[in-house]
Specification:
The chain is of the alpha/beta class. The protein is about 20% helix and about 25% strand. The protein has 7 helices and 19 strands. The protein has a 7-stranded mixed sheet, with helices on one face. A 6-stranded mixed sheet has the order 1-2-3-4-5-6, with no helix packed on it. Strand 18, helix 7 and strand 19 form a beta-alpha-beta unit.
């Protein structure tokens, strides 16, 4: 009798029958391994959770009273003979690729990942395996990222020019990950840095676990714009299209996202400035990560799955598409947010 495959794909999520555990399930299950704290991967309602130690603070903040255990990167846990370990994914702080191995069959469930170090997240580490489950949020050749240093220079120039003109600069950025990356790059000598409550909630959690971020000022209901001329404001994407921005008076809006590579997206959102920055890998990053695994089989999920799988097969990989409920950055452009705050 043929050995049952170590990983199966179900309507509840990615499942390992032998270990009786799910990875990032989207429906309630007894035991869940969680790759990172974004809401499309870490959902409420599970019996037990396991994540990395550095992902735990944001998990507890978001999901409150859950049965949560933690593991350090690289440590191996035995679940009914299956060796399970977590490895840095470089997506956001605490994010992990999850490796499951049994009798020579090795799977890596990557969750979301990016290749370029950002100075906050634990840097991505390639993991050898026979089967690799990869996102492809930006799985088109048009999606290529400039270096973080280049984007930082663009943001600083835009903000400095606006500040000199007495204009408030407002950047839309996802509350966990992107916002903190931008904060870590800012020149605090230009003017004050203001934050929306959702972003400040993430900042508070990350600061408490040792992440160094510059001083920020929470925008409260009694906010006085005159006291912060030329400031830079960080807000979730949904706030850019709301009445909330009117309190800042004359302002210029920007958005930091991989989708800013597409001019049409920027025009539809009526943005003044787009900054191409993503917590997901670009086209070259995806191909580089996949090549580094030496995997025999690639399963692609959430993103340009048809095009990306077809390309992988054309260059010699055995690639297939897996349907999941993960959103990546694709849904976020439509006014949703990976916020840790309700």
């Amino acid at each position: 009798m043929a050995q049952e495959r170590l990983i199966t794909f179900t309507d509840r999520g990615i499942y390992c029958p032998r270990a009786d555990v799910y990875i990032d399930p989207w429906k309630p299950v007894p035991r869940a391994l969680i790759t990172h704290g974004h809401a499309d991967h870490a959902r409420s309602g599970h019996g037990q959770y396991l994540c990395t130690a550095s992902a735990a603070p944001i998990m507890r903040h978001r999901l409150d009273s859950i049965d949560l255990q933690t593991v350090e990167y690289g440590a191996s846990i035995d679940m009914n003979g299956v060796q399970i370990s977590f490895h840095p994914a470089g997506h956001v702080i605490g994010s992990a690729q999850i490796r499951l191995a049994y009798k020579g069959e090795i799977w890596v469930i990557s969750g979301d990942y990016k290749i370029e170090p950002d100075g906050i997240s634990e840097p991505f580490e390639p993991v050898q395996c026979t089967h690799f489950v990869s996102e492809c949020t930006f799985g088109l050749p048009i999606f290529t990222w400039e270096s973080q240093a280049t984007v930082a220079a663009q943001i600083k120039k835009w903000w400095r020019n606006n500040s000199a003109a007495g204009i408030t600069s407002i950047i839309g950025a996802y509350s966990l990950g992107k916002a903190q990356r931008i904060l870590s790059l800012l020149d605090t000598d230009i003017a004050a840095i203001l934050t929306h409550g959702a972003i400040e909630a993430s900042n508070h959690v990350l600061r408490a676990q040792g992440v160094q971020l510059p001083k920020t000022h929470l925008v409260t209901p009694d906010f006085d714009n005159k006291a912060h001329k030329g400031a830079l404001v960080l807000a979730p994407p949904a706030a850019l299209g709301s009445k909330w921005v009117k309190k800042f008076g004359p302002h210029s809006t920007g958005f930091a996202s991989g989708w800013m590579r597409l001019r049409g997206v920027r025009r539809r959102r009526a943005l003044d400035q787009g900054f191409v920055m993503s917590d997901h890998s670009d086209w070259n990053g995806l191909l580089s990560a996949i090549n580094a695994t030496n995997a025999e089989n690639i399963f692609v999920t959430h993103g340009y799955t048809d095009i990306f799988a077809r390309h992988l097969n054309s260059i010699g990989y055995n690639a297939a598409i897996v349907e999941t409920a993960f959103e990546g950055e694709a849904a976020q452009i439509d006014e949703t947010d990976e916020s840790v705050a309700s």
